[in-house]
Write a structure and sequence with these properties.
With 86 residues, this protein is mainly beta. The chain has a domain of 60 residues: Beta Barrel (OB fold (Dihydrolipoamide Acetyltransferase, E2P)), CATH 2.40.50.100. Helix content is 0%, strand content 37%. The strands form two sheets. The protein has a four-stranded antiparallel β-sheet, with no helix packed on it. It is elongated. The N and C termini lie far apart (80 Å). The model has no long low-confidence stretch (mean pLDDT 91).
Length: 86
């Protein structure tokens, strides 16, 4: 009996809530320590200087500075460049 019965047409109304993933601060923008730079699933972009990875793979700044993105060894990195004090 591989045939389902008729009846309710309301079988499709399920959708997951948005997860708000993506880049939150772009290259050249200033951040403060603790600011989230990227929300991601898996490490698509790796943490560089003054950046750490959270438990959900988000990247956040550990120091005040300016966000810079670069790529080497076929990996993308997010860095925070700290302005030197004068």
């Amino acid at each position: 009996m591989g045939r389902s019965k008729g009846g309710s047409g309301a079988k499709n109304g399920r959708d997951s809530n948005p997860k708000h993933l993506g880049v939150k601060v772009y290259g050249g923008q200033a951040v403060t320590a603790g600011s989230i730079i990227i929300k991601q699933r898996g490490t698509k972009i790796f943490p560089g200087n003054n950046v750490k990875k959270a438990g959900d793979d988000s990247l956040f700044a550990t120091a005040d500075g300016v966000v810079m993105f670069d790529e080497h060894n076929n990996r993308k990195y997010a860095n925070v460049v700290v302005a030197e004090a004068k």
